[in-house]
Structures are given as structure tokens and as C-alpha cells.
Amino acid sequence: MCRVGPFHRCEKIENLRIYNIINNRHISGHGKTRKRRPESLGDVLATLIKDLGIGKKLSEQGLIEQWPQVVGDKIAKHTRAVTCEGGKLFVEVDSAAWRHELLYMKAQILERLNRKAGSKVIQEIILTNRRR
User: Fold this and answer.
1) What is the pLDDT of residue 74?
2) How far is 69 from 48, CA to CA, in rounded Å?
3) What are phi and psi of 15, to 5 degrees?
4) Nearest to 64, CA basis, from 91, 100, 86, 101
5) How many distinct helices (H) and strands (E) make up the chain?
6) Where do you find CATH 3.30.300.180 in the chain?
7) Please, which pLDDT band fits residue 63 given cuts at 50, 70 and 90?
8) What does the pLDDT read at residue 32?
9) 76-127, pLDDT tens digit by residue?
10) Quick count: other Cβ atoms within 10 Å of Cβ 95?
11) Distance from C-alpha of 9 to C-alpha of 1, rounded to nearest angstrom
């Protein structure tokens, strides 16, 4: 029976996508398991992210974390990127004046965010009042 890390072959585990990704990287030979070829951790993680379909969500989260660098210190002092859902980035703004100003800058900020991501991850920016 092939053993991969802490996982044993069984009906229940074989249905898991993660197990299948790991299992496909091994071949059986004479009761032993050996790797086909050495792979870097980065390559394995990239494959796992792609196969699990979480690449876009990771890109969205990365943009939320990079919000201050993308918009600059002045805007970052008055705003906070909160969450991203369905290509919409929700940004809290601390005053109506700043919200009004940012309405005129949304297209520029959107373009900078997507350039930073390397693809069109964000389709829309939603400005909301900061919760107190």
C-alpha cells in the first residue's frame, strides 16, 4: 500500500483534491514510493493554489494588504481597504469630504490596483463610511 506523508490510501482520502495533488507527484515501484523528480516548494504551492482555485482570492487579499502603498500615505491615513468580494473592493473612508474626493479618483486607483496585481482582479471600488 502506498503511503504519502501522514496519509494512507483509503477511499475517503482519495476523494480529497489535496491528496490527489500530492499523490499525483509520486509513483509506486516495488512497494516503495519515490518522487518522480525534485520540485521546489514554490512550484508545488503554485500548483496547489491553481488546483484549489484560490489564486484570485489570494490576489485580492494581497491588494487589501498593499492598499497603503498603492494609494500613498495621505489617502491611506483617511481610508482602509476592508474586504473584497466578487471583484468589488470595499474601502472605509473617515469623512464625507474624503469620500467625495475619492469618487473622482476611483478610476486611477482601480487602474493602479490592477497594475499592481498584474491582472484585472478588482472591477469596482465601493466607498463606505468608516464604522466607529
Assistant:
1) 95
2) 28
3) -80, -10
4) 91
5) 7, 7
6) 55-129
7) confident
8) 54
9) 999 999 999 888 999 999 999 999 999 999 999 999 999 998 888 899 999 9
10) 11
11) 7
Cell triple for residue 122? 478588482
- CA-nearest of 90, 111, 86 to 99 is 90
CA torsion through residues 91, 96, 99, 103, sign: positive
- Quickly count: other Cβ atoms within 10 Å of residue 37's Cβ: 5
The correct answer on CATH 3.30.300.180 for the domain covering 55-129 is yes
Q: Which three cell numbers stand for residue 23?
A: 499523490
Burial class of residue 11 (count of CB atoms within 10 Å of its CB; 0-12, 13-18, 19+): exposed
d(CA 115, CA 113): 5
Q: How do residues 11-60 score in pLDDT, each as one tens digit?
A: 454 446 566 666 665 444 444 555 567 888 888 877 876 776 677 787 78
CA distance 36 to 46: 18
Question: Distance between CA 26 and CA 13 in Å, rounded?
Answer: 16
Residue 91: all three cell numbers together: 474601502
pTM of the model: 0.64
